[in-house]
Amino acid sequence: MTLPDFSNNSVLTKLEDYLKDKSYIKGHEASQADVAVYEKVSSQPDSSKFPHVSRWWQHIKELDHKSLSGDKADAEKALPKMDGAADAEDDDDVDLFGSDEEVDPEAERIKAERVKEYEARKANKPKPVQKSVVTFEVKPWDDETDLKAMEEGVRAIEMDGLVWGASKLVPVGYGVSKLQITLVVEDDKVSMDELQEQVQELEDYVQSTDIAAMQKL
Description:
By secondary structure, the chain is of the alpha+beta class. Helix content is 33%, strand content 20%. It contains seven helices and four strands; from the N terminus they run αααααβαββαβ. It has a four-stranded antiparallel β-sheet, covered by helices on one side. A hairpin with a 2-residue loop joins strand 2 (162-173) and strand 3 (176-186). The longest helix has 19 residues, at 105-123. It is elongated and about 80 Å long. The chain starts with 8 loop residues before the first helix and ends with a strand.
């Protein structure tokens, strides 16, 4: 299996475009295809430049990779061509003032000024807020745990960019039920790792937490 070099910005930009309308590399749930690409992206990309890749990377990081189904080879089949060679670039980076004629220094100076102005305008454009809906699970210690108090403790946790939603109890066996709760987060503001740590600090009630599903809005 050969995947492209994701340290190359042009390749990372293509992955960003690919994940704009997708939550995973292949299909509608995380798989070994996601693990294969995650292992090639050495660290979490800058969320201001690559918000979709950054959101996807953070989500895959939090999963148990060994439990995911599929084959890593599926990643190469699912992804479009992402060679780092200087092929067609995004429209935003196209040279709008190129010419086949001999270089004119004055024309080059004007071109450089216009490109600089264009990039400044593009940089000042407000960026849309990226949000995800998360299905979050909280497991109690046993069947004697006060689930109502546990849920109240969970909902009492506040973060900028976090909104708690509907919840339900899901039986897991032996008279024990886990709390399954939906929440909406702003990807740039809320760290799911930090949220899980805060929930697990409710030591009298919480045995463990898990992210059952995560979908970009």
